[in-house]
């Protein structure tokens, strides 16, 4: 094959290490997702009459909800038999194994707790947080690309990536070195575009946006794309090979339905935030 037929991807997932401490691209992008997200959320909150103290509080809830949800999602959705038999292994996050659907559930639950404890309107919180979650998702998928993980199926498209450092096991054997769909990049670009859309809508309309519109758009568009892109991915675990739809697709369906339900409610009975930058009262 000529160099025009694929892109050779041989990036070292480790940036540098000092003794036993290793700094990796995935960890860097994961941290940047929260750091940059906090700055954007601070601008949103201050503009709408809240304080940076509220942002600090919600960031803490978000970090805990994301990490715990993503880890438990991986252990329960993709390999429950192993982890329930070896529960101590659940704590070993540094060995890898985070699920985006689990992170979504963890975020939704942690933000519900935040809204209840800090007297926020839950839907208002969700509408604003999905803006930064979209940006974070784009960065984390770039981390997956740097790790040469969550690879796509073999393809001959000219933008295919040849992942020289991939060591995933597919159907009991090591993944081939054939060029593959860079599905991590597909998802990163899509979610970044979703971030731009959501931020633009907020910046242009702010408190005049119907409550639930940003959240409904985010959930519907993100998981509809996730459902489709899964057709281009290699299955993550062996038991998915016998399924008509893989686990990522099955978990996306209820989230798509939730998003469509929220959008229907917004269309049926729009409830904008109060004028003057004030928030709708918590119900």
UniProtKB/TrEMBL annotation:
EC top class, as a word: transferase
* Name under which the protein is recorded: Phosphatidylglycerol--prolipoprotein diacylglyceryl transferase
Ranges annotated as spanning the membrane: 25-46, 58-78, 98-115, 122-140, 185-202, 209-229, 249-267
Q: Which keywords does UniProt give here?
A: Cell membrane, Lipoprotein, Membrane, Transferase, Transmembrane, Transmembrane helix
Cross-referenced InterPro entries, in alphabetical order? Lgt
Check the record and name the PANTHER family matching this protein.
PHOSPHATIDYLGLYCEROL--PROLIPOPROTEIN DIACYLGLYCERYL TRANSFERASE, PROLIPOPROTEIN DIACYLGLYCERYL TRANSFERASE
Q: Which organism is it from?
A: Pontibacter fetidus
Single GO molecular function: phosphatidylglycerol-prolipoprotein diacylglyceryl transferase activity
Q: What does this protein do?
A: Catalyzes the transfer of the diacylglyceryl group from phosphatidylglycerol to the sulfhydryl group of the N-terminal cysteine of a prolipoprotein, the first step in the formation of mature lipoproteins.
> What kind of membrane protein is this, topologically?
Multi-pass membrane protein
Pathway(s) per entry:
Protein modification; lipoprotein biosynthesis (diacylglyceryl transfer)
What's an example Gene Ontology biological process for this entry?
A: lipoprotein biosynthetic process
